[in-house]
Amino acid sequence: MRPFLLVALLPAAMCAAATLQIVKPVVSQSDGGDADAPGFEHVAGETLFFTCRVEGFTKTDDKVHLTTSVQAFDPRGVALAEADNNAVLEQVSAQDKEWEPKITSEIEIPPLAPAGEYKILVKVKDFYSDESAGLPVTFRVRGTRMDPSDRLVVRNFGYYRAQEGGQPMASPIFHNGATLYARWLITGYKYGENNKIDINWTVSILSGDKVLKTFDTAADQSDGTFYPKPWVEGEFDVPLQKVLPGAYTLLIRVKDVTGKQDIESRHPFSVE
Fold it and tell me: Mean pLDDT of all residues in the chain?
């Protein structure tokens, strides 16, 4: 009897409805382009193109009705933009038995986007079967690496020999007549309504504990954006003319107006 029961159940199992699922995901640099090669890294500010297909959907009176959602998240789980919501409403004939609904979406990587692994979360719901399915798809972004902070902080500080590019100086020793260039990032500030930022900072040069000169205040009062600005870039340059040889300190004072935070960050250099 046991072999007979198994054989008798096979037709029913084979006729069972297919499960709704998302398949054939493709992340590409161009619309309709090839999928990213393994290990490929996108860059901040880039627009990438995503497509996938849906299998196991239900047809009623040769009609297909799906709702879809595509949303991308950074390595911290913060959404890059609002979800891209759409619907698939199609009349499908018997000749279209190989047809699969296609989901497409363009994803803009923010200009200030941290390096790491990002996730595209795709969701689909079948109106006729009431089934839902989801699929996470990852991609990588090459860029600035910086751990988030729960308090105001200056990070990635460096002295440079040129205003743009180059590597930070291992030993910040300058000569009279040269120009001192410094760059850094500010993070850990609090956000206002709609992720608005309100911070300012000053730069001073010290000899010991004596302030030799304080320069004009710089500020970032960025309007709110959907994706919270993860850091603010600071930079400073000054020609070193007729400066006595010796040890000095570059002092950065930062104020977070929204979060009511104030910090100082000191960075030594010398002149020969």
Answer: 92
Q: In what order do the strands lie in the sheet with 84-91?
A: 41-43, 132-142, 116-126, 63-73, 84-91
Tell me how crowded residue 122 is: count the other CB atoms within 10 A of its CB.
21
- Select the highest-mean-pLDDT range: 58-62, 162-166, 214-218: 214-218
- Written as six digits, the tokens of 82 are 């609002």
Yes or no: say if 64 and 88 are a contact pair by the CB < 8 Å rule. yes
Pairing of strands 21-28, 47-55: antiparallel
pLDDT, position 97: 78
- 3-class secondary-structure state, position 51: strand
Query: Of 3.30.240.20, 2.70.130.10, 3.40.50.300, 2.60.40.3880, which CATH number belongs to 18-142?
Result: 2.60.40.3880
Q: How far apart are CA 169 and CA 241, in angstroms?
A: 20
Interatomic CA distance for residues 81 and 50, integer angstroms: 15
Q: Taking the CA atoms of the chain, what radius of gyration do you get in angstroms? A: 28
